[in-house]
Design a protein that fits this description.
175 residues, mainly alpha, Serine Threonine Protein Phosphatase 5, Tetratricopeptide repeat, 2 strands, 59% helix, globular
């Protein structure tokens, strides 16, 4: 009798009124980048990195996935890994402002203010000056470069970590 019920036109997961539970989403049904961005915004950096790695496995290593992996590593304080991923991203697409910006943030965190200001200029140019976050990062980097002996300026600066799409992440500078 049980097998007969399962073989009916409705199947096991359908009720007589037409309401049924949906199936489990397959791995290709969820955008790993979107999930990673949401996890990063929620402060779940390790989970975001895992989501970005899944996205890279699904989509391949492209500028979006490399930039996202680099940015997640940056938020985790893994500056060497972040720098490597973000440099790969800007090599892949030199016109991608978020990767340039986030590479600049890494360089600022590593104390490489001169190179960071150059990188922020590239981000600003690639973005055509449209991003307030990139403009602010460039301004702060140039202020640090001009006033390298002024500790008050160095201690009270915030750099913005950005991503493609809507939203941005604020990275507090510990320099």
């Amino acid at each position: 009798m049980f097998f007969l019920a399962a073989c009916s036109s409705g199947g096991l997961n359908r009720s007589s009124d037409g309401v049924f539970a949906p199936g489990v989403a397959g791995p290709g049904d969820v955008d790993g980048l979107l999930v990673g961005h949401r996890l990063l915004a929620a402060g779940e950096y390790e989970l975001a990195l895992k989501a970005y790695n899944r996205a890279a496995a699904q989509q391949g290593l492209n500028v979006d996935t490399m930039s996202a992996i680099g940015s997640a590593n940056l938020t985790l304080g893994r500056l060497g890994q972040a720098e490597r991923w973000l440099r790969r991203a800007v090599e892949e697409d030199p016109t991608f402002p978020p990767a340039w910006n986030n590479l600049g943030v890494v360089l600022m965190e590593r104390g490489q203010t001169g190179e960071a200001s150059i990188v922020f200029r590239r981000a600003f140019a690639a973005d055509n000056g449209n991003s307030d976050e990139i403009r602010d990062n460039l301004r702060l980097a140039l202020a640090r470069l001009d006033n390298s002996n002024d500790t008050e300026i160095q201690e009270n600066q915030n750099f913005n970590l950005i991503r493609r799409g809507q939203g941005d992440f604020l990275l507090m500078s510990d320099l």
